[in-house]
Design brief:
heterodimer; A: 195 residues; mainly alpha; 78% helix; 0% strand; globular; B: globular
Chain lengths: 195, 173
C-alpha cells in the first residue's frame, strides 16, 4: 500500500517536473531529501530517547499505574462490555495511559490484548461497539506532550517549540470527542447490517 | 499563556523526577534503560522517514505539491485550513513517516512560527496514523467486518484537523 503511494508520488513528481521544466531541481531534490530525512530523524531522535527514559521513571515509580486507575471510571462508562472483566479493563486502561504519555511501544501490545479481550467478550465475528470504540480512541491522538513535533519545531528555529501544547490539547480533545460521539452514533445505524 | 506553556515541560520533568526519588526508583538506570528503548524506536522509523522524505522532497521540487494545493484550495477555504496544510491532512491517516516529512516540509517552507507552520505542528501532534492503527488492531483478530470503526475514526481525524486550524487561530491570534 505505502509502496504504491511512494511510486505514485515519484512518478507524479517526474510528470510535473517535465511539465514545468524543473528536472534539475527534481534530481537535486532526491539527494537533498535523503540527507534531510536522516537529519529529521536525528533532530527528533534525542527527544524520543529522552522521553522514553522519563516515561520509564513513571512506569517504575508506579505513576503510570496511578494515572490508569484515575481513568478507570471514565473507561467503564465507554466500555460497558468490559465492566465485569477486570483483566480486559486493566488492558484498556494501560493502553489509554501509554497513549497519553506518548509511549507507542507500550500502548500497542496493551491495546492488542485489550482488543482480543473485547473480541472474546463480544462473541461476534464482527467488530463489537466496544471494539470499535477502542480502535477509534486509538486512532485519535491522546498524547499529552507532543515531543516529536516540538523537536521538529526546535530544529527549525521556533521561538518556543512547546508553545503549541494548549492548541494540541484542544485539537486532540475535539478529535477524541467527535470520535467517541461518532462511534456511539454510527453503532446505532449499523446495528443490524454490519459492513 | 506563553509562560504557562513554556513551564509545562520543565514542571513535568521535575515532578516525575522527584516522585521517582520519593518512590526510591533508580532514576539514572530508568532513564538510560528507557532511552535505549527509545533509540530502538528511532532506528525503526529512520528507514521509512528517509524513503518518504525523498518522495515529499520530489513533490515539492517538481511543483507537484503546489499544484495539489491549488486543486485543493476550494476545500481549504471550506475547512478553515490553509491550502498548504491539505496535503498533510491527506497523508496523515496513511503514513506516520510521510506525515512527519510533509509536516516538516510545511514548517520549513512557511516558517515554524507562521500560521500554516503552527497548524501543521498541531495537526501532527493531535492525530494518529489512522489506517495503520486500524490494520494493527483488527489484524490481530479474525473479523468478518469492522462495522463503523473506519468512518468514526476518519470523522475524528477530520474534526481534529479543523480544530487544529481553529486552535492556532484562538491561541496565537
Amino acid at each position: 500500500m505505502l509502496g504504491k503511494i511512494w511510486v505514485v508520488m515519484v512518478v507524479f513528481s517526474l510528470f510535473c517536473a517535465l511539465f514545468s521544466q524543473k528536472t534539475s531541481e527534481l534530481s537535486s531534490a532526491v539527494s537533498a531529501g535523503a540527507s534531510q530525512g536522516i537529519e529529521l530523524v536525528l533532530s527528533i531522535g534525542g527527544m524520543i530517547m529522552l522521553w522514553s527514559g522519563v516515561m520509564e521513571i513513571m512506569k517504575r515509580s508506579g505513576l503510570s499505574e496511578k494515572l490508569a486507575r484515575l481513568l478507570t471510571p471514565l473507561l467503564r462508562f465507554l466500555f460497558p462490555s468490559a465492566r465485569k472483566d477486570d483483566g480486559v479493563m486493566s488492558d484498556i486502561a494501560s493502553n489509554v495511559t501509554a497513549n497519553l504519555l506518548g509511549l507507542g511501544n507500550a500502548a500497542t501490545p496493551a491495546g492488542i490484548r485489550a482488543a482480543q479481550g473485547l473480541y472474546r467478550l463480544g462473541g461476534s465475528e464482527y467488530a463489537t461497539n466496544d471494539l470499535c470504540m477502542l480502535v477509534v480512541i486509538n486512532t485519535a491522538s491522546l498524547q499529552l506532550i507532543p515531543t516529536t513535533v516540538a523537536a521538529i519545531r526546535a530544529s527549525l528555529g521556533a521561538a518556543a517549540p512547546f508553545d503549541i501544547i494548549p492548541a494540541v490539547w484542544f485539537a486532540s480533545a475535539v478529535s477524541q470527542c467527535v470520535g467517541i460521539v461518532c462511534a456511539a452514533l454510527f453503532s446505532k445505524f449499523r446495528r443490524k447490517s454490519p459492513l | 499563556m506563553n509562560s504557562f506553556s513554556s513551564l509545562i515541560v520543565p514542571l513535568i520533568l521535575t515532578f516525575i523526577g522527584l516522585y521517582g526519588i520519593y518512590r526510591k526508583v533508580d532514576i539514572y538506570d530508568a532513564l538510560v534503560a528507557g532511552a535505549t528503548e527509545g533509540l530502538a524506536t528511532v532506528a525503526k522509523i529512520a528507514p521509512s522517514v528517509v524513503a518518504l522524505f525523498v518522495a515529499i522532497h520530489m513533490l515539492r521540487a517538481s511543483g507537484a505539491l503546489e499544484f495539489i494545493c491549488s486543486l485543493l484550495s476550494p476545500i481549504a477555504s471550506f475547512s478553515g485550513l490553509p491550502p498548504e496544510n491539505l496535503p498533510l491532512a491527506l497523508l496523515r491517516p496513511l503514513s506516520g513517516s510521510a506525515a512527519l516529512a510533509i509536516g516538516r516540509d510545511i514548517m520549513a517552507n512557511t516558517g515554524a512560527d507562521s500560521f500554516p507552520g503552527r497548524i501543521a505542528a498541531v495537526m501532527l501532534g493531535a492525530s494518529e496514523t489512522t489506517f495503520y492503527t486500524i490494520a494493527v488492531y483488527f489484524g490481530a483478530l479474525r473479523l468478518k467486518g469492522t462495522r463503523h470503526a473506519i468512518p468514526a475514526a476518519l470523522a475524528a481525524d477530520l474534526a481534529g484537523f479543523v480544530a487544529s486550524a481553529l486552535a492556532v487561530k484562538i491561541f496565537f491570534a
